[in-house]
Structure formats: structure tokens, C-alpha cells
Amino acid sequence: MRDALKDRVAVITGASSGIGRAAALAFAREGVRVILGARRTDRLQETVEAIRSAGGTARSLQTDVTRPAEVTRLVREAVTAFGRLDILVNNAGLGYFGRLESMPIDEARHLFEVNVMGTLYGIQAAVPIMRSQQSGHIINVASVVGKRATPGSGVYSATKFAQVGLSESLRLEVADAGIHVSVICPVSTMTEFFEVAAARSPLKFDPTGPTYTAEQVAEVIVRCARRPRTEVILYPPARLMVILNAVSPWLMDRVLATYWKKIRPGL
Ligand SMILES: NC(=O)c1ccc[n+]([C@@H]2O[C@H](COP(=O)([O-])OP(=O)(O)OC[C@H]3O[C@@H](n4cnc5c(N)ncnc54)[C@H](OP(=O)(O)O)[C@@H]3O)[C@@H](O)[C@H]2O)c1
Known about the structure:
Blueprint: E1 9-13, H1 18-29, E2 33-38, H2 41-53, E3 58-62, H3 68-82, E4 87-90, H4 105-133, E5 136-141, H5 154-174, E6 179-185, E7 189-190, H6 193-200, E8 212-213, H7 214-226, E9 231-233, H8 238-247, H9 249-263
Parallel strand pairs: 1-2, 1-4, 2-3, 4-5, 5-6, 6-9, 7-8
The structure holds NADP nicotinamide-adenine-dinucleotide phosphate.
NADP nicotinamide-adenine-dinucleotide phosphate (NAP) is lined by residues 13-20, 38-40, 43, 63-66, 91-94, 114, 141, 143, 186, 188-189, 191-193, 196, 214.
């Protein structure tokens, strides 16, 4: 089972930091040939060099996921360089912390462009390749707030719900082509995510509740690539929140309101 991923080819978006970078390193350790995309080329190059000096195979391409042609070029690079595409991790994303009533519309649009449209561009570039191979695995990195929204990050949650929706629909559309689709829902993870969001937002949130490292999330992504799963919620007790929300959103509101008053007074 350990060698199941050896010589596979994976494309990872948002690979210049956090979960994407850790996933690139973790896949490379398994013998996967990785192609990294993001906007910051110096960061990508540093990770490519780290992988190569450990004996792995990696390349990178500057990619802004809001530009469909750049995402297509990144995904096709797998075929150009290695003749196939086995795994696409749609991971690039960013957040925003503030009330919905005052969120600048351009900021909301940008979140949808990166988190949702970026994922869709990746899907549209990868599926024809994977269909022709009759195999492949698309892994979308959403969030637990894509299963139940919380106050102060409504648009971010909406983009994550959208990624879950895209994943559910796509899963059924491509099942007959031997393509797996998984959605990963991390909880708080210690990455630059909070800093990047704070720099764009009126509020500053720190990681709260059960908190994971990027490496732990990356391991879950690699495990999911080895043994495809439909949906992974990183902190298993969070599944209870999802179930409670499905049964009684009213009760879940009361639970969240109490918790939120404690951890984020003023919201
Ligand atoms: N950290 C958490 O608590 C947490 C929890 C649940 C889900 N997530 C999700 O996990 C994913 C990774 O986030 P992270 O925590 O690893 O944060 P991060 O360290 O800030 O990484 C975000 C990545 O996305 C890339 N990115 C942002 N805008 C982009 C664009 N327009 N085009 C291409 N790449 C872009 C960034 O690269 P460049 O800036 O170089 O382009 C960076 O590599 C996101 O989808 C996030 O929503 C995070």
C-alpha cells in the first residue's frame, strides 16, 4: 500500500505555503512527481529545490487561479512533463473576517474568484485529461465551515459550501470515468491563512478550537489520495456539529452563539 502512489503525477494549487506546500513535500516523499502552482515564484522555487535535494521530482509554474488560462497551463504541464495527470489538489484559497453587512463587494468577489472559480477552472482543465486516461483523483480543499457557517466569515463559508457542492456534483458526473473526487474539510490549521486574511479584513481571528499543523492536514490529503474517500472532516467530533446542524439548524445556532460569545466577543 505504501508504494501505491509511487511515480504518480500530482498538480497542487496554492503550493507556495501552508497546506499546499506541506502536501507537495508529503506527496514527493511518497515518490509522487509534483507540479506546484501559486503566484509567489520564490516560494515555489524554494519548495521545488527542497524536494529535489531530497531525491524527489518537482516543477513549478507561476499560477494565479483567478486566470483560467494559467490554471489550464498548470494542469496540462503534468501531461507535457510526465505524460499523465493522476491527482489534482485544488487547494489555493484565502479568507476574510468581518460582518457580511459591511464586507466590500470587491473583496467578496475576489474570494469567490479564488476559492470557487479557481477550483472550477482546475476541474475543467483536469477532467478531460483524466477521462481520456479513465483514471484520476480530484481533491478539493474546502473547510469545516463549508458544512456549517459561523459568524464573521460568511462569504468565506459560502465559498467553501460552493466547493463542497462542486465536489458532490462532480463526483457523480465522473464516477463512470474512473475518476475519484474527494473533499477535505480542515478545521483551524496553523498557516499564513490567518495573517493573510487579517491583512485584508477589519477583524483579526486567531486559530481557535482543535488546531492542526499544515503537515497533519497534508498527511490526511496523501492518505486520501492513497485510499480515496468522499469527504474528510479533519477533526472527527466536528461531524457531530454537521449532523446536529442537519437535524436542527436552530439548535446549532444556539450552540454556536454561546460558543462565539466566549471566543469572539463583539461579533
Ligand atoms: N488554515 C486554516 O485554518 C484552514 C482551515 C480550513 C480550510 N483551509 C483552506 O486550506 C487551503 C490552504 O490554505 P492555508 O491554510 O494553507 O493558507 P496559506 O498558507 O495562506 O496558503 C494559501 C495558498 O493559496 C495561494 N493563493 C492565494 N491566492 C491565490 C491565487 N489568486 N492564485 C493562486 N494561488 C493563490 C497562496 O499562494 P500565493 O499567495 O503565492 O499565490 C498560498 O499558497 C485554503 O483553501 C483554505 O481555505 C484553511
